[in-house]
Amino acid sequence: MKVHTSDSTSELSLDLMFIATDTVDLKVFLDDDPLFATYLGNETGIESSYTENQDNLILLLEFIFNTKVTLTELTESANRKVYDLTFYKDRCISIEDLERNYLIWIEESGHDNNMDEYGNLVSIIGYIRRNQGKKHLLLTVEKRTP
Fold it and tell me: Which parts of the chain have pLDDT scores under 70?
């Protein structure tokens, strides 16, 4: 298990998948076919998002969980890493918190103030809060290929 705080050298776009689950089979999270077969067909599903780089990922997670975040890596493949966010899942902000602090997010992240940005945050927060009863919250991070 590796612990990460930030990697400012990573400037590629990152695809994110938040996955709430009661069981963890790490092999499933490294391969799209079993991952999608397992989670897209169930009531929990997967919440997909993206961010610009590792620094912005940390910024996003610290905003959503309203605390300092240290990523705990469970496993990795050539292009994908799987992180355990279980420790933070019960700290997820509410939609009301997002409404109050959205402009702070825009200022800190440097992102555009638009419906795509707001909707992305609503989707992530909604997914995490709906699935807080699950035992685990995992995050897959994959470098987007050009």
Answer: 1-12, 146
